Known about the structure:
By secondary structure, the protein is mostly helical. Helices cover 44% and strands 0% of the residues. The chain is built from 7 helices and no strands. The protein has helices spanning 12-27, 50-63, 94-101, 103-109, 119-124, 127-131, 135-143. The longest helix has 16 residues, at 12-27. It starts with 11 loop residues before the first helix and ends with a helix.
Amino acid sequence: MKQIRNLSEVGRRVLHGCLAAIAASMVAAVPALAQFSPTPGELVSWNDGAAKQAIFDFVRATIDRSSPSYVTPEDRIAVFDQDGTLWVEHPMYSQVVYALERVPAVVAKKPELRNAAPFKAVLSGNREAMAKLSMRDLEVILFSPRR
């Protein structure tokens, strides 16, 4: 698979499709489409900056009937996947979250694990220690019985 180094290597159709997907997902949450104006409550977990502003500008242009970039509602699509396009800035797989959140229940049933690695690291709440957990550590947590 060829690595894309900059946007000029991405086909216009692919780029527009991705942007349309983002726009479509945002449009679904905006009650007054014709007069889109982001409010302080929209995308509150996003950092302010050029990327966030570009998304708002794109949505505004694609839903404004007088804009040359207008996209009719029936031509709007939304694509959801795990390629990083729609993820948070520092993603954590939901499977990892699940594994870490089940540690207290596992230890409650098997108290001898409280001081054993990797359970001890998770119970400590030390994010740096948890970030260093290996795939094997996560497997140990995930496959440990709760009985």
